[in-house]
Amino acid sequence: MTCSDVNEMKAFKTQMMNEFEMSDLGNLTYFLGMEFTEVAEGLVMHQKKYASDILKRFNMMNCNLSSSPVETNVKLEMNEEEEPVDPTLFKQIVGSLRYLCNSRPYIAYAVGIISRFMGEPRASHLQAAKRVMRYIKGTLQHDILFPKCLNESSMELIAYSDADWCGDKQDRKVLQATYSSS
């Protein structure tokens, strides 16, 4: 559970413990592969251990780093003449990367592209998946900060995304999403 008022949270926990058999596990630190750390600025979420485990599982710990998760203007396609790869391995890689998108939304575009070829993956598709993992290797220290709200009555979250590098030929606008709870 989460709450902005510590006293209210303590009262609720006490009420719940009186009503139900339960244990207080303390502050959130690890949940379903996501790690949380409280810092002075707020709450940090990351999946460093999970990302490292992916790299180890698929023998990518000693890989060369990539500066981006996908090549600019990449156009993957199904080429029947290209060498097929193990579909089970490919699905495991894509599934692992999909879960990693929880704390790394900026890889969602690249993972979405490679996900299209899970039925009959080819060498170029596996190469693109490995590029995402090479990018992950170079960004293991990336995380998401959920800042403390300075003004309790108003909170604003702004996110920008340009995962396809202005690929929209119509207006080349960058997607902006704003959430406000005032």
The helix tally amounts to: 5
Largest sheet: 4 strands, antiparallel
Average predicted confidence as pLDDT: 83
Strand order, main sheet: write it out: 1-2-3-4
Q: Report the helical percentage.
A: 25-40%
List unreliable stretches of 5+ residues. Answer: 174-179
The general outline is: elongated
Work out the oligomeric state of the chains in this entry.
Answer: single chain
Distance separating the two termini? 22 Å
DSSP strand tally = 6
Sheet-strand content, in percent, reads: 15-25%
Structural class: alpha+beta
Q: How big is the Rg?
A: 21 Å
Summary?
The chain has 182 residues and is α+β, with helices and mostly antiparallel strands.
Q: Which key features would you list for this structure?
A:
16% strand; four-stranded antiparallel β-sheet; 182 residues; alpha+beta; elongated
Task: Describe the protein.
- The protein has a domain at about 50-140.
- The chain contains five helices and six strands, in the order αβββααααβββ.
- It has helices at about 5-20, 50-55, 85-100, 110-115, 125-140, and strands at about 30, 35-40, 40-45, 145, 155-160, 175-180.
- It has a four-stranded antiparallel sheet with strand order 1-2-3-4. Strands 5-6 form a two-stranded antiparallel ribbon.
- Helix 3 (about 85-100) packs antiparallel against helix 4 and helix 3 packs parallel to helix 5 (about 125-140).
- The longest helix is centred in the last third of the chain and has 16 residues, at about 125-140.
- The model is unreliable at about 175-180 (pLDDT under 50).
